Amino acid sequence: MSKLDDFPITRRWPPRNPDAIQLYSLPTPNGVKVSIALEETGLPYDAHLIDFAKNDQTSAEFLSVNPNNKIPAIIDPNGPGGQPLALFESGAILLYLAEKSGQLIPEGKRWETIQWLMFQMGGIGPMFGQLGFFHHFAGKEVDDPRPKERYRAEAERLLKVLDGALAGKDWIVGDYSIADIAIGPWLRTLRDFYKAADIAGWHQLKHVPAYLDRFLARPAVQRGLVQPPRS
Question: Where is the signal peptide (predicted)?
Fold first, then answer.
């Protein structure tokens, strides 16, 4: 029978509560998806900061949990069959936490919820991230306007899709779900960190701005956005 201390990562980031889910993350839009879900479900967790400034994500200990060297990752000491489970990819972790807790996938809306989760994973996250690179980071130094415009136009299109789907609803599938937990942090990042909302047609949207405000007003979201604390 495997134990939590069989995982090399626990020697670099020792568990404070060995019975809790061990979260290895950073407060980025992908990282906070998991901390928010943990706060919403009430599942006990132990948050460990993976510091990009120190290249923690490329350490042998972190790679032993996620060979793709991306945050977030978790180890659940009480996984299926009572065995520890290590898991990476934020979308997979959201699904796991929802199933473990019996929360955040509304009854009768499982596949609709997964559909919108995949919409974020395959569309909103990658496209917003590329727009952020070309608008806010080093990509803005690229003289050729075509890359930025490609991602700007796609971000605008995705926002319009989301806006239409939210008509008459507070949440993307009607009830609050892991799909909202996946989408909300990326909307916040586009607007507040990348400062790219205006060029992506934000002020033409009828429903998305209020949707983001509702999301950010949730107490569990506010708690999850700062986990793990930056040192």
Answer: none
DSSP letter at 158 equals H
Same domain, yes or no: 68 and 44? yes
96-121 per-position pLDDT tens digit: 999 999 999 999 999 999 999 999 99
SS3 of residue 87 by DSSP: strand
Q: What pTM does this model have? A: 0.96
Backbone angles phi, psi at 25, to 5 degrees: -160, -175
Amino acid 1: pLDDT: 43
Same domain, 37 and 93: yes
Long-range CB contact pairs, 177-180, < 8 A, 24+:
177/98, 177/104, 177/105, 177/106, 177/109, 177/113, 177/116, 178/37, 178/94, 178/95, 178/97, 178/98, 178/104, 178/105, 178/113, 178/117, 179/113, 179/114, 179/115, 179/116, 179/117, 179/119, 179/120, 180/215
